[in-house]
Amino acid sequence: MLTGLTIVFLGGDARQVEVIHKCLELDASVRVVGFDKLEQPPEGVTNENLTPDLLKEADVVVLPVVGCNDQGVIGAPFSSKELVLEKELFSVLRPGIPVYTGMAKAYLKQIGAECGFRIIELLERDDVAIYNSIPTAEGAVMMAIQHTDTTIHGSNCVVLGMGRTGFTLARTLQGLGANVKVGLRRKADAARAVQMGWKPFVATDLTAYTSEIDLIFNTIPTMIVTAQMISKLPRHTVIIDLASAPGGTDFRFAEKRGIKALLAPGLPGIVAPKTAGIIMANALSQSILEEFQLRGDEG
After folding, report:
1. Do 206 and 181 contact (CB within 8 A), yes or no?
2. Which residues of 153-162 are buried (b: 16+ CB within 10 A; e: fewer)?
3. How far, in Å, CA of 172 to CA of 108, rounded?
4. Across-strand partners of 157?
5. With contact defined as beta carbons under 8 Å apart, do 120 and 109 qualify?
């Protein structure tokens, strides 16, 4: 249980609502900012203003999956006001207080270092990333169906990267009857790919296979689908880039050549916000319980 803890939520989308519900169920004292436009707010919670007094009371602060952008703006689609993470405001947090987010950009990390709070990135946890790969894969398949005029069954699909998302996606495509090739950066992944029935190749050698590709799914967050590769793709090829913005595709050249290329980060929150929220809620509550249990043991 989280009895006695004050948890302050700052912004977030439908996933965050699930996290709020979970914390309430565990008997935390929940304060929220950035939810004044939510039609059905969680029972017992009222929207508040982002003030130093509110942050002084916090034992835990929870930010959205992407904590804030490079200008410090916190994602808050249910807010009528812009929320900004400012150093002067966050300097009132108690030293060492945990601030949770999915992934932290450089701005948030810098403010954390200057103000002395600890940033905990939930998407760095293997369990969260693996669970999240499921709605990501389903969302990628949904996009592929929407933007092609042929079935996935029998199509030639390339998945670039065999991390947690790439692995789940390749297996999903295989289950739908696609011919799956996986572009790898690590030789150690080749054996696993062969064992799964996929055809592995070195990701940078994609040009050797471009003439027979219907769909490319990229999960590598560096420029990998280059103009040189795109220039050799059939015009019907669709590229779905699942890497964090700005992705790993030369979108400008793809548009110039008439190749459909779509940047699609954050699919769990788009295609399955309830499931994605439950994943984050379970990880957050477990982490908070471990955090304060450890403090209690040390005390």
Report:
1. no
2. eebbbbbbbb
3. 35
4. 180, 215
5. no
Q: What share of the chain is helix, strand, coil (3-state, %, to 5)?
A: 45, 20, 40
What 3-state class would DSSP assign to 111? helix
SS3 86: coil
Q: Distance between CA atoms of 120 and 149, rounded to whole angstroms?
A: 43
Structure-token match 């064992």, residue found: 195
Q: What is the pLDDT of residue 294?
A: 52
Total-model pTM: 0.82
Sheet strand arrangement including 98-101: 47-48, 29-33, 6-10, 60-62, 98-101, 118-121
pLDDT tops 50 at residue 297? no
Report pLDDT digits (tens) over 209-240: 888 899 999 999 899 999 999 999 999 999 99
CA 216 to CA 202: how far, in whole Å?
Answer: 15
The Cα-based distances of 210 to 156, 203, 229, 242 in angstroms read 10, 12, 7, 19
Q: Is the pLDDT of residue 296 over 50?
A: no
For the segment 150-183, what is each residue's pLDDT rounded down to a tens digit? 999 999 999 999 999 999 999 999 999 999 999 9
CA distance 7 to 20: 9
